[in-house]
């Protein structure tokens, strides 16, 4: 904890502030309890299958391999992960092992919450033997490794083969130009002008992630090299957003409100769209609702100046305040190893980070996951600066403003960059 | 506080009051002392609970609003910096405006509808218990289910709102995705959802009503409508004060509904103050800022409550 | 024992001449209320119908209204997705204790604020109301810290340091949310609307203040007790964030936390979610139907029924 700052509480007569400060800083003991007892906070095993896998198979196996260590699991979901982390950090009772998302690491590492894994013989170079280097980026901050991925989820193009064939296209588009031509040709409206089939659905995916796919495929980055300034409003970024805005506003390949991120189902699955920018879970979803359609769905890379997909995921970290770091690191290694990683991904329909698993039955039986794994060289994680969690929430409104025509892409991204810069300088 | 001796004292005084003929003046003094003691005693558990679990956190909120508190580090005193940032924050200004508009429309409309329905359902009416259950149902239905249905009704492609409009020849809209309509669409759901609770409180209040007043009015030849305005409404004043204050507080803190319907969008068109508080606290890890935003919200509510008391004379009956 | 009892039976008489006209109006009224009730019923109905559809049907376009194939198995499958029996029991324990605490202490406090005059009373009342005006999201971290620093619990010393306090215990689930100023406020308003004559008469008879509260006034506000109980129960039944934050053990978790299982990042299992939500709503609907008796009781007492 930093000590150079002027504290509240000492000056103010308010007992409550002292109370709060005491509570906030008192509990640096980490998770108390017997030696060898560690806590795991996880947002990815909360379902019944997840719990069965974790507590029925994985944890017993780990405890057998590491006698003397007991693992207590605290289940949460991604929607409440931040609330769990906030309260546990504020109270000083930080779980020994925490799973968090891509983009979280930089901020938590910067604040000293996470342990530097380099102290435990884990490094990018050792891990890159088994994992793709692109994927390891998300666990790094300031040249050090703080987290190891166990589960990835990716966003890329998805096309309906049958609908493409109807319009005379025999393979998915390979460039932005083709994507645009296809999308225009595949858009269908009824006599009244009501949209019945969107050429390219860009509204089911979260607006930020959708934009990032196009940004990365146009050679853009979120921040500059040294992480001091936003770069998403660079010419590449503005061009990427302009491209999407034109698709919607000029070419009218999809109407505002046609789909949204809380849609019950993906429009490509029920035939309301011919192509989409979407999540690799489309395959599992299509299998569940309509296996015949699943056969018709083909993944493809969005290509502006390069093939690129957006990659999120879940990483495992160790708390800096953990009194039992050796055990915590052992659990981290166990959870990111082949068995646990495969089990975790299988129950969520997601992409394993370990390259060896490309040959596993699970991956070969899931087209979407296989495609993602084969293309991990083109994966781009989000984040890169400690203020990312603060910045990312503002993307949605800015992208929407551009799509609605309230702002030009340049204005929208410049405004976003200004507030991002403020957050980074704070 | 006299919490330790209170019970016995009161008991003793009960006995005293029963057995001893006391002079009127002294009795009045004893009486007021007795009520005071009993008053504090009966208040004690609630007061203690509220001080620990709400007043201290509220006070902490106020203190932290003057700090930069990220949860990771200790709070750092920064004076009014959070407040000046709020003042210049366009999104928060938008959220404040949206919240005020939302409150301004949802509270009076749902209160008006609720009181009328409560009065109807208070009369002898066939199927009244079914109606009551139906009107209360949105209150117990999970917000996700409510949102799901309204998302479906508002759907620009196949929703029944647009189907109805096209039936009468009006072009449909993308209600929740169009910034000009999104807030209005959310307000309609807010009114709809708010009726049940208010109706329930009015119904309960109507049970306490002295029926003989209506008789007198009936004999005087007052119409049901006149009775409603001259007798029912004035007698419902304590309930109305409660419903108003609580509804304004609830409307100012609307969160779940917006979260599931529009997520604050499109382009911040439906973002609300509590939504910004939530974002500051749990997405941006700026607890100090969240506290300052909460204090601003608190100020609005205090002012509105005071204005309400001034205008209506509060709940003095 | 209602005050209105004595005079009421005569009330229907003067209205008799208007009956025909009122009947005509009643028809219109029934129509308006019917349509209104139907709009209110819709989401609930939709929830139940959705819970009975297959994933394949749910992805259809345009959506169907009635299930083509009634998938009753959704219910058993949803129930298997988490230890719902434990969650259900926990929620029930918490909601019942919250309701009991609230009714007893809330009624006491509400009565004191409404009917006993003492200095500082209005200030205390306004204080209670003001406590409602700060959003949960900023209060929750301080509340968490208080729970964690509860002295002499969970390995804490007398200053509340060193251990985990009430975290991961029933205390944390029951005590902090046990009483809301909302209930106190509502009780106060109901006690306020009762006539003064009763207490004056009772005091002259030498009845103690506690007994005036417990035996004279409180029986008169049964509708209020029913209302507060219903709302308190519902509030703690629906609570999600607090129980999630203060527990780490699965055996202390509650029903709403269980339901969150169906809403994973990006993927919502609608049919299961709606099946679980429907089941979770049943206790509240039952409670409402039960509490209704107390609303109707008012009529019986005043003899209109």
Summarize the structure.
The complex is a heterotrimer of chains A (426), B (317) and C (305). Chain A is an alpha+beta fold and 426 residues long.
Please provide the ordered H/E string of secondary-structure elements of chain B: HHEEHHHHHHHHHHHH
Q: Please identify the structural class of chain A as seen in this structure.
A: alpha+beta
Q: What percent of residues of chain B adopt helix (DSSP H or I)?
A: over 70%
Average pLDDT over all residues of chain A = 88
Helix content of chain A: 40-55%
Radius of gyration of chain A, in angstroms, nearest whole number: 23 Å
Which stretches of chain A are low in confidence, meaning pLDDT under 50 for 5 or more residues running? 1-34
Structural classification of chain B: mainly alpha
Low-confidence stretches of chain B: 1-26
Number of helices of chain B: 14
Q: What is the CA-CA span between the terminal residues of chain A?
A: 18 Å
Multimeric state of these chains?
heterotrimer
Shape of chain B: flat
- Chain-averaged pLDDT of chain B: 84
Number of strands of chain B: 2
Q: State the strand order across the main sheet of chain B.
A: 1-2
| Number of contiguous helices of chain A | 18
Question: Any idea what the radius of gyration of chain B is?
Answer: 25 Å
How many individual β-strands of chain A?
Answer: 14
Question: Largest interface, per-chain counts?
Answer: B-C, 112 and 114 residues
Shape of chain A: globular
Notes on the structure:
By secondary structure, chain A is of the alpha+beta class. In chain A, 43% of the residues lie in helices and 16% in strands. Chain A has 18 helices and 14 strands. The two termini of chain A are 18 Å apart. Chain B starts with 5 loop residues before the first helix and ends in a 5-residue tail after the last helix. Chain B is flat. A two-stranded antiparallel sheet of chain B has the order 1-2. With 305 residues, chain C is an all-alpha fold. Chain C has helices spanning 12-15, 19-50, 55-58, 73-80, 84-115, 121-131, 136-148, 170-174, 181-192, 197-204, 209-217, 222-237, 241-246, 255-259, 270-302, and strands at 263-264, 267-268. In chain C, helix 4 (73-80) packs across helix 15 (270-302) and helix 9 packs antiparallel against helix 12 (222-237).
């Amino acid at each position: 904890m930093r000590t150079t700052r002027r504290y509240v509480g000492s000056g103010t007569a308010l007992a409550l502030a002292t109370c709060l400060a005491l509570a906030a800083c008192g509990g640096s003991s980490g998770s108390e309890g017997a030696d060898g007892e560690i806590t795991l906070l996880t947002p990815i095993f909360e379902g019944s299958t997840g719990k069965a896998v974790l507590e029925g198979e994985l944890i017993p196996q780990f405890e057998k391999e590491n006698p003397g260590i007991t693992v207590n699991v605290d289940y949460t979901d991604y929607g409440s992960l931040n609330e769990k982390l906030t309260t546990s950090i504020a109270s000083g009772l930080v779980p020994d092992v925490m799973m968090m998302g891509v983009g979280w690491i930089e901020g938590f590492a910067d604040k000293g919450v996470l342990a530097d894994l380099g102290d435990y013989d884990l490094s990018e170079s050792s891990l890159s033997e088994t994992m793709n280097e692109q994927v390891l980026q998300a666990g790094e901050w300031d040249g050090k490794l703080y987290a190891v991925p166990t589960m990835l989820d990716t966003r890329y193009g998805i096309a309906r083969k049958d609908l493409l064939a109807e319009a005379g296209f025999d393979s998915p588009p390979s460039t932005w130009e083709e994507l645009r031509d296809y999308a225009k040709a595949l858009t269908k409206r009824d006599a009244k002008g009501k949209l019945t089939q969107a050429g390219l659905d860009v509204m089911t995916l979260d607006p930020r992630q959708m934009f990032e796919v196009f940004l990365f495929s146009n050679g853009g980055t979120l921040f500059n090299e040294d992480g001091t300034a936003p770069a998403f409003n660079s010419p590449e970024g503005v061009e990427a957003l302009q491209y999407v805005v034109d698709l919607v506003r000029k070419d009218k390949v999809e109407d505002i409100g046609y789909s949204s991120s809380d849609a019950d189902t993906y429009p490509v699955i029920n035939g309301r769209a011919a192509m989409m920018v979407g999540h690799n879970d489309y395959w599992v979803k299509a299998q569940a609702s309509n296996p015949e359609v699943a056969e018709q769905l083909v993944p493809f890379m969005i290509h502006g100046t390069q093939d690129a997909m957006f990659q999120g995921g879940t990483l495992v970290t160790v708390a800096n305040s953990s009194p039992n770091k050796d055990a915590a690191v052992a659990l981290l290694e166990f959870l990111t190893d082949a068995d646990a990683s495969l089990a975790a991904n299988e129950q969520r329909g997601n992409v394993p980070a370990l390259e060896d698993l490309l040959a596993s039955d699970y991956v070969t039986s899931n087209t979407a996951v296989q495609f993602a794994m084969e293309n991990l060289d083109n994966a781009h994680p989000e984040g890169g600066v400690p203020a990312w969690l603060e910045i990312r929430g503002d993307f949605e409104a800015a992208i929407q403003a551009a799509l609605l025509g309230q702002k030009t892409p340049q204005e929208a991204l410049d405004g976003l960059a200004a507030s991002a810069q403020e957050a980074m300088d704070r | 506080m006299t919490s330790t001796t209170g019970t016995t004292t009161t008991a003793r005084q009960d006995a005293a009051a029963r057995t001893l003929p006391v002079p009127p003046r002294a009795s009045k003094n004893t009486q007021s002392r007795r009520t005071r003691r009993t008053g504090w005693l009966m208040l004690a558990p609630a007061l203690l609970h509220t001080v620990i679990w709400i007043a201290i956190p509220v006070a902490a909120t106020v203190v932290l609003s003057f700090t930069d508190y990220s949860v990771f580090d200790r709070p750092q005193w920064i004076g009014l910096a959070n407040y000046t940032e709020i003042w210049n924050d366009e999104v928060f200004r938008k959220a404040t405006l949206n919240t005020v508009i939302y409150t301004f429309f949802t509270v009076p409309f749902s209160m008006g509808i609720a009181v009328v329905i409560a009065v109807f359902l208070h009369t002898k009416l066939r199927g009244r218990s079914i109606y009551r259950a139906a009107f209360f149902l949105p209150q117990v239905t999970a917000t996700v289910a409510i949102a799901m249905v309204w998302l479906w009704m508002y759907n620009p492609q196949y929703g029944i709102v647009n189907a109805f409009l096209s039936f009468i020849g009006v072009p449909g809209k993308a209600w929740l995705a169009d910034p000009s309509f999104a807030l209005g669409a959310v307000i309609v759901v807010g009114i709809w959802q708010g009726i049940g609770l208010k109706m329930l409180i009015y119904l309960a209040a109507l049970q306490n009503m002295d029926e003989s007043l209506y008789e007198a009015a009936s004999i005087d030849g007052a119409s049901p409508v006149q009775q409603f305005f001259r007798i029912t409404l004035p007698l419902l004043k304590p309930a109305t004060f409660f419903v108003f204050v609580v509804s304004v507080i609830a409307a100012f803190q609307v969160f779940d509904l917006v979260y599931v319907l529009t997520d604050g969008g499109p382009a911040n068109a439906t973002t609300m103050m509590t939504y910004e508080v939530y974002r500051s606290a749990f997405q941006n890890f700026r607890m100090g800022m969240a506290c300052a935003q909460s204090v601003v919200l608190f100020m609005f509510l205090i002012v509105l409550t005071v204005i309400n008391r001034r205008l209506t004379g509060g709940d003095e009956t | 024992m209602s005050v209105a009892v004595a005079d009421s039976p005569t009330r229907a008489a003067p209205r008799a001449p208007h009956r025909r006209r009122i009947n005509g109006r009643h028809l219109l009224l029934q129509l308006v209320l019917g349509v209104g009730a139907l709009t209110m019923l819709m989401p609930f109905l939709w929830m139940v119908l959705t819970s009975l559809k297959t994933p394949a049907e749910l992805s259809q376009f345009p959506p169907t209204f009635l299930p083509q194939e009634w998938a009753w198995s959704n219910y058993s499958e949803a129930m298997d997705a988490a230890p719902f029996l434990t969650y259900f029991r926990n929620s029930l324990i918490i909601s019942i204790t919250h309701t009991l605490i609230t009714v007893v202490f809330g009624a006491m406090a509400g009565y004191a604020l409404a009917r006993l005059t003492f200095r500082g009373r209005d200030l205390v009342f306004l204080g209670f109301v003001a406590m409602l005006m700060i959003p949960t999201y900023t209060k929750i971290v301080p509340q968490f810290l208080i729970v964690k620093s509860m002295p002499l619990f969970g390995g804490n010393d007398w200053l509340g340091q060193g251990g985990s306090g009430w975290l991961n215990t029933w205390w944390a689930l029951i005590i902090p949310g046990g009483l809301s100023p909302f209930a106190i406020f509502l009780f106060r308003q109901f006690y306020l609307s009762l006539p003064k004559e009763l207490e004056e008469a009772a005091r002259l008879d030498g009845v103690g203040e506690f007994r005036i509260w417990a035996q004279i006034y409180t029986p008169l506000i049964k509708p209020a007790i029913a209302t507060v109980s219903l709302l308190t129960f519902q509030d703690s039944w629906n609570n999600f964030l607090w129980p999630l934050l203060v527990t780490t053990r699965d055996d202390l978790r509650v029903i709403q936390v269980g339901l969150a299982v169906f809403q994973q990042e990006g993927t919502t299992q609608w049919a299961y979610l709606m099946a679980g939500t429907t089941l979770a709503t049943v206790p509240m609907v039952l409670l409402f139907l039960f509490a209704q008796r107390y609303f109707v009781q008012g009529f019986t007492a005043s003899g209109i029924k």
